[in-house]
């Protein structure tokens, strides 16, 4: 049982780390001379411009930002609740709340990454100052991929907590 708990703790911490990197790092859409995330656009990896209200789909991008931040916060809260429930609740009641919060984190990261996937082309096409060099030569970056990996990890973690609640 201790090995299983250690594995779940490591898996959960890995999920949180993936969410932090995917949310913060500037690599959702990359090319040879630029990188874009949900916060800023960087040319030549040094000349960075914050994405603000002048961005045509700013409200949609804010939804991506909010859902990624919320998923990270929920994942951290689920970990702390897991630690509290580990010693406080009797068997059969353990980890249900942790599982629910972790699955909500999973849902939030899925929403954020899905919105970005669906609207990415509109983000770049509707903003003349960005679209001239981003559309033709770009590709999804590692932060975008990490967001989808974090989705899978948080989903599996949420399911593991449901299974673990019945273990002795």
Automatic annotation (TrEMBL):
The keyword Cell cycle does not apply. It is found in: Apical cell membrane; Cytoplasm, Perinuclear region; Golgi apparatus membrane; Membrane raft. It comes from the Eukaryota. Residues 1-16 form the signal peptide. One of its GO terms (cellular component) is perinuclear region of cytoplasm. The keyword Transmembrane helix applies. Functions as a key regulator of cell membrane composition by regulating proteins surface expression. Also, plays a role in regulation of processes including cell migration, cell proliferation, cell contraction and cell adhesion. Interacts with PTK2; regulates PTK2 activation and localization. Interacts with ITGB3; regulates the levels of the heterodimer ITGA5-ITGB3 integrin surface expression. Interacts with P2RX7 (via C-terminus). Interacts with ITGB1; the interaction may be direct or indirect and ITGB1 has a heterodimer form. This is Epithelial membrane protein 2.
């Amino acid at each position: 049982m201790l090995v299983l708990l250690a594995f779940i703790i490591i898996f959960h911490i890995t999920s949180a780390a993936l969410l932090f990197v995917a949310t913060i790092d500037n690599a959702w859409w990359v090319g040879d001379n630029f990188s874009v995330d949900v916060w800023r656009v960087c040319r030549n990896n040094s000349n960075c411009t914050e994405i603000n209200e002048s961005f045509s789909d700013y409200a949609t991008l804010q939804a991506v930002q909010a859902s990624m931040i919320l998923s990270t916060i929920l994942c951290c809260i689920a970990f702390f609740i897991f630690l509290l429930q580990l010693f406080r609740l009797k068997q059969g009641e353990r980890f249900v709340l942790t599982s629910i919060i972790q699955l909500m984190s999973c849902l939030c990261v899925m929403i954020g990454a899905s919105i970005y996937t669906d609207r990415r082309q509109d983000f770049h096409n509707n903003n003349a100052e960005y679209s001239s060099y981003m559309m033709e030569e770009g590709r999804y970056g590692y932060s975008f991929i990490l967001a989808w990996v974090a989705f899978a990890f948080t989903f599996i973690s949420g399911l593991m907590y449901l299974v673990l609640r019945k273990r002795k």
